[in-house]
Structure formats: C-alpha cells, structure tokens
Amino acid sequence: MSEYGTLQDRVRCKSLMSKVMTAEQTIPMFKDGMNLGWSGFTPAGYPKVVPIALAEHVEKNNLQGKLKFNLFIGASVGAETENRWAINDMIDRRWPYQTGKDIAAGINAGRIRMGDKHLSLFAQDLGYGFYTKDSPTGKLDLAIIEVSAITEDGGLVPTSSCGVIPEILMVCDKVIIEVNTGQPSFEGIHDMVSCHTPPNRQILGITKAGERIGSTSIPCDPSKIIAVVESKLRDKGRAFTDMDATSEAIAANIIDFFSHEVKAGRLPKNLLPLQSGVGSIANAVVGGLAKGPFYNLSVYTEVLQDTMLDLFDSGRLDSASSCSLSLSENPGFPRFFDNWEKYFDKITLRPLSISNAPEPIRRLGCIAMNTPVEIDIYAHANSTLVGGTRMINGLGGSGDFLRNGFLKIMHTPSSRPSKTDPNGISCVVPHCSHIDHTEHDLDCVVTEQGLADCRGMAPKDRAKLIIEKCAHPEYKDQLNEYLAIASKDCLARGVGHEPQLWDRAFKMHLNLERNGTMKLKNWDVKVDLCE
Question: Residue 36 is inside which H or E element, if any?
Fold first, then answer.
C-alpha cells in the first residue's frame, strides 16, 4: 500500500479491477510497427512502468531494432522512457517534440524519423486522424496513459499533465492505463475538454486565465481499457536551470519594458496573462517578476517550472493555467506536494488543444516570451535547428503564442561560446539558417545588451535597431557593414525592401563551421572567409 492510498481506492470503476496486471504482462500486447499514443507533456504525466518493462524486454532478448514503434506524444517525456527506447532502437517515428541526448542523436543520424509541428496543430491533427490515415484501421494501435484515478463511469483523471489524452482517446480503441499511487491524486486540478471536429468544433469560452470550461476528468469507454497497471514511479521532471548574469540582465530589460508599457497605458498594472518558455532566461524572467512591482498577475502557458512556485510564494501571482506541471524532480515536486494546499487551487491543467489554442491566447492577450537559437536582423527567429540542420528538441508551443499573443517577445543571449571563442557564435545574424517564426510575428527582441521594440517598423529600420540594441559589441560593426553593403547593392537594383545578399547572408554560419567563430575578416566573397 502506498501512503497515498491503494489501487482499489483509485480505480472507482470496479469492473476494471478484473483487468489489473503487471507491466510485464502487457508486453505481448505490443507488436513491431505499432502506432502508439502516450500521455505526458514535457517530463510530466507520462507512462513509466510499461515503457520501462518494454525496454527491459528488448534488452534481455536482444531485440534492438526488431521491436520498433511510432510514438505520438504531446511533447517530451522522461529520459528513462523515450531516451532509453532510442538507445535500444525502439523508435521509428516520433511526433512532435522530444528531449534527450540519445533520441536527438538518433534523429540527426537518420535512425528516427521525427516530424516537427506547432503543438496546438499537432493536437488537433491527431484527433482528426491525420497521423493515422495510412494505417489499416485509421487509428492508433495502442495507447498508454498515466492517471491519478479512474472515475465510477470510466473517466480518466490525469496526473501532472494533460497532453493529448482527449485526442488519443478519439483515435484509439485499446488503452493501457497506468494508475500512479506513488504520489497524491491530482483530481480536481484539471479542466478537461474534448474538442469536436469541424464543422461542430465548439467555442472555447475562456475569458480569464483561471476560468474553467470543462470537467476534472476525460470520458473513456471502459471497454477500451485492456489493462490496468499500478505505478509508483514519479516524474523525473525538468531539471532546474540556474540563472546567470546574462539571463538576469535579459530579465531586467523585459521588466523595465513592462514598466514602460504600463506607464504608457498599453498594459494594465497587473500586465496581461504571461506565457513563458523553458530554460534559464524563462526562469530569470519569472524570478524577476517575483521581486518586481507587478501584483495580481496571471499565467496562461503550457509549462509551469519551479520558479512559478516562487511567483506564487511572493504573493504576486493569483492563478496559473498550463498543460503541464513540469517541475524538477528535486526540489520542485517535493516542494509542491509539501505545500499542496497553497498551490493546488490556484493551478489549472488543461489539454494541449486548449492550453495552446489560438482562440484563448488571442482573447486573453497573452504576453509571449520564448528563447530561440538565433534571431536575424529583420526579426525572423530559428527555434529548432542549429546551423539549419541539427534538430535540438522541436518547435514546441512557441509559435502558438508568438503568432497569437498580445506582445510577442523573443529573448536570447547576444552571443554564445564556440569551442575556440567565448563569443564565437553571434545570436544575431544577417539571416537565420532556418526560420520557425517570421518577422510578421515578433514584436520585441531582447538580449542582455538591450531590447529592440520593433512594432510598427519597416524592415531596414528594424535591422538597424536590432543591431544597435541587441547585437554583441564584438559583432555590431560586422553586422552594420553587412547591412550597408546589402542595402547599397539591393537598392541600386530596385530590390531593396529587405536587403539580403545570398552569396554572403550565411557567411557567418560558414565561418563558424570551418573556423570555429562567426567573426569575419571581411565580407568580400572573393576572399575565403577568414583567409
């Protein structure tokens, strides 16, 4: 028995107790080539004991590469599951977002076929059957869903995330349920909605970040459930990312900008619902807000990290809506469980199709803040592919908020170190090596150097401002020189609205690849890079 109750307590649909089995007993249900749906969103709320048992089965029987699956999951899950599956060559396709050194290596080596997608679109397209249209049944073959409880009528109560559970149930008739009794039940924290398909798709009438429009569980026909497995394993969570001087300077620039916008009357005193991505800069922004001048704040986002608890503790945050409670394994989740009464009623967890839907994001006027790989001088952003080719994690939900928010902010260090130069990589470049977010979607670019407010500016004016405010001092002259050369050439040819010279636009990237730094000796194409 767990200190949080028994499996019998959690499974209130008593007919399902006849389907209780061990994780190992589910292994014959899995066949090579299956399309699998998992719960989970970031390392939270994902199935654990069944995927781990499958990995152990592959390892013990030397089945690496012989038992492979197509995984459809709301976002990344714990490394002890999908990264271990990648090591064992158990993944053929993976949609739409992942984390883990080995799964990223498998993708970039061509062993794993990954598809990247805006998360809100992934959720709806999964429910529409777009990802299973070529399978014999037109459905997912099997789903594994972690829950806190099963209600009397078979409804599923998720754990620490909602992910794409509603859409999985729309396109899957065989479901394995992991009931997690190793932590308190999350029943009551969720706002679950199953979106209909057009032309019957319903209005998402969320007018405040904490408003609820659904139920605390998601309906599931008990006949779909083919196994119930008890789990006591907790989420590994997202490791807490420490703040540094650069991220704190970026946060200070953003908070100063908010104060300016409030003074100008373009933002209310309690701002507007905040969306914040993941990583050290996001932590620093939220940490700065916990000490800042703004009260009665609200959050409408997709991931809640540890610093959101700091914001609650500061008395400045009234409510937070998210798809996932993506806290660190330690101290995040223990801190949450130890202070359950303080946080639980102020947090709402929603499915991905609601947390990232354009409709409420636009209606609420969310302030979107995310970190890219690089920004170019015209305010295009690359969030996914280093050098335009190497996948990191995926697009995630940044585009959902950047396209639809009230204020759309990208924050990045002005430079990053290369192997040979502490400022060898400029995060402001002439043209992004890959574009996830266009100039049409971004309002502000922020680095530790400053903030460029690009609203209402023509392209060449944006370029001058971004270089002036955001580029690292070691790259400002170089970038200004490129802009001058490109402008002179393009304007002379009558093609100068957004000047670019394609024989030189990626010279900084090429120089990094060949010489370990983005610092050039000149822009002359007749001279080989630094030579």
Answer: strand 35-38
Show the tokens assigned to 303: 């991931």
Strands (E), 297-379: 297-300, 303-304, 317-322, 324-325, 347-349, 367-370, 374-376
> If you average pLDDT over residues 267-293, what whole number do you get?
92
Q: State yes or no: pLDDT of 2 exceeds 70.
A: no
Tokens 């000796």 label which residue? Answer: 521
Residue 109: other Cβ atoms inside 10 A: 8
Using the CB atoms, write b or e for 194-229: b if 16+ within 10 Å. bbeeeeeeeebebeebbeebbebbbebeeeebbbbb
Q: What is the pLDDT of residues 296-331, one digit of tens each?
A: 999 999 999 999 999 999 999 999 999 999 999 999
Complete DSSP assignment for 404-439: H-SEEEEE--SEE--SS-TT-EESEESS-SS-SB-T
The reported pTM is 0.95
CB 197 within 8 A of CB 128: yes
Write the CB contacts of 108 (distance below 8 Å, at least 6 apart in sequence).
Answer: 390, 391
What would the mean pLDDT of 37-59 be, rounded to a whole number?
A: 97
User: Cβ neighbours of residue 138 under 8 Å, at least 6 residues apart?
Assistant: 129, 132, 171
- 499 in Cβ contact with 377 (< 8 Å): no
Nearest residue to 212 via CA among 267, 272, 167, 162: 162
Strands 324-325 and 303-304, how do they pair? parallel
Question: Which residues are identified as catalytic?
Answer: 302
CA 331, 401, 238 angle in degrees (round to 5)?
20
Q: Where do the CATH 3.40.1080.10 domains begin and end in the chain?
A: 7-231, 245-474
Residue partners of 323: CB distance under 8 A and separation at least 6: 41, 74, 161, 162, 163, 302, 303, 349, 350, 351, 352, 355, 356
Domain 245-474 = CATH 3.40.1080.10: yes
As a whole number of angstroms, the distance between CA 528 and CA 531 comes to: 5
- The pLDDT tens digits of the residues spanning 389-419 come to 999 999 999 999 999 999 999 999 999 999 9
Mean per-residue pLDDT, 465-485: 98
Distance CA(129)–CA(127), nearest Å, equals: 5
What is 7-231's CATH number?
A: 3.40.1080.10
Inform me whether the pLDDT recorded for 530 exceeds 70.
Answer: no
